[in-house]
Write a structure and sequence with these properties.
Blueprint: H1 26-41, E1 46-48, E2 58-61, E3 64-65, E4 68-69, E5 73-83, E6 87-94, E7 97-107, E8 109-115, E9 121-127, H2 128-141, H3 152-174
Antiparallel strand pairs: 1-2, 2-5, 3-4, 5-8, 6-7, 8-9
The structure holds nickel (II) ion.
Residues 94-96, 136, 140, 191 line the site of nickel (II) ion.
């Protein structure tokens, strides 16, 4: 297994639509395992393949909560096949949008169909944080970030701050300064 670098916004690769995998083969399983390790190390509770530069419809999640102890979930070609009319609001963050959070409304429960790590088709009823997370990750596969669900004013402000932070980091690196320790996000909001 290997830790993969996580792309951060604004990066054009995060805005691309990912392609379905033909099958869950050795390479896809390797990607899933590397993504899970990368997600745990971040730490976060969900990660989508385009966030590590692979434009494949693959996501991993692990919502470690009392009421939703699913263990790690590996999903290839995930699809929402049912969504509740009722919405729920959750304060979302994202490993590709570090240090920024915003309330996003999404269906409170969804049913997702996907291929698991063994390539078997599965369906899972998701609610609570799991429902939010699975929708957030599937959005990534369509080039959509949580900041695309908020006002353009707030989105542009966040993107400007991310660019500024990146430039400062690059300047520090060029000047040979030791890298500032990245502040760990609250994993419950690192989707
Ligand atoms: Ni995300």
């Amino acid at each position: 297994m290997a830790l993969l670098p996580i792309l951060t916004a604004p990066d054009p690769r995060l805005k691309k639509k990912s392609l379905p995998v033909a099958a869950v083969d050795v390479d896809v399983r390797q990607l899933m395992d590397d993504m899970l390790e990368t997600m745990y190390a971040a730490p976060g509770i969900g990660l989508a393949a385009p966030q590590v530069g692979a434009l494949k419809r693959v996501i991993v999640l692990d919502i470690d909560r009392e009421e939703t102890k699913t263990g790690p979930l590996f999903m290839a070609n995930p699809e929402i096949v049912e969504a509740s009319d009722e919405d729920v609001i959750y304060e979302e963050g994202c490993l590709s949008v570090p240090d920024h959070y915003s309330d996003v409304a999404r269906p409170a429960s969804v049913r997702v169909r996907y291929l698991d790590r063994d390539g078997k088709q599965q369906e899972l009823a998701c609610e609570g944080l799991l429902a939010t997370c699975v929708q957030h990750e599937i959005d990534h596969l369509d080039g959509i970030l949580f900041i695309d669900h908020i006002s353009s004013l707030k989105r542009n402000m966040i993107l400007r701050k991310l660019l500024k932070a990146r430039k400062e980091k690059e300047r520090d690196e060029a000047e040979g300064k030791p890298p500032a320790k990245d502040q760990a996000q609250d994993p419950e909001h690192a989707l």
